[in-house]
Amino acid sequence: MKRAFPWTGFVFIFLLAGCPLFGPEVPATNTTIELRNNGDFTVEAVLIYGSSTSATANELRASGTRVAVTIPAGDTAKIERACNALGSMLIDEALLIIPGTFPRSTTTGVVRRDTDFTCGQILRYSFTHPAVPTTLNATFSAVAP
């Protein structure tokens, strides 16, 4: 009996060999995420990330990996993850902790691999506040190592 598509066996072997038919393979190299507190008070932040580059903020909140960190004034927290795990991420909530007052909070939008950053860059969230700390600001940048 003749096969209807004699080339199907070749395609299957081609895919098993790891040929990137559907786009480039994302390297598993580690990528550093820095959370910099450039303020005068402690910041407590929750970073959420996931491997999908198309995840929405709500999808990340529902099924992403959460990392909670406390960053003293003037300090930096560093997180290392495999780049293929970092398809998208956001700061879900960051709190500026000022003793004797209510915390000030902020969130960020979703940033995505291959749009906002690439593997091998340092992914940096910087937290700042004005001289009179009425708000907390968070900015994202991707910089060369």
Rg from Cα:
20 Å
Spatial gap, N to C terminus: 59 Å
The geometry reads as globular
How much helicity do the residues have?
10-25%
Q: Tally the beta strands.
A: 9
Specify the number of helices: 2
| Oligomeric state of shown chains | single chain
Order of SSEs, N→C?
HEEHEEEEEEE
* Biggest β-sheet strands, sense, barrel: 5 strands, antiparallel
Average pLDDT confidence is: 87
Based on secondary structure, the structural category is: mainly beta
Residue stretches low in confidence (pLDDT < 50, at least 5 long) are 7-23
Would you give an account of this structure?
Helices cover 11% and strands 41% of the residues. It has 145 residues and is mainly beta. β8 (122-128) and β9 (137-143) form a beta hairpin. Mean pLDDT is 87; it is low at 7-23. Strands 2, 3, 5, 6 and 7 form a 5-stranded antiparallel β-sheet that branches. It has a 4-stranded mixed β-sheet with strand order 4-1-8-9, with no helix packed on it. It is globular.
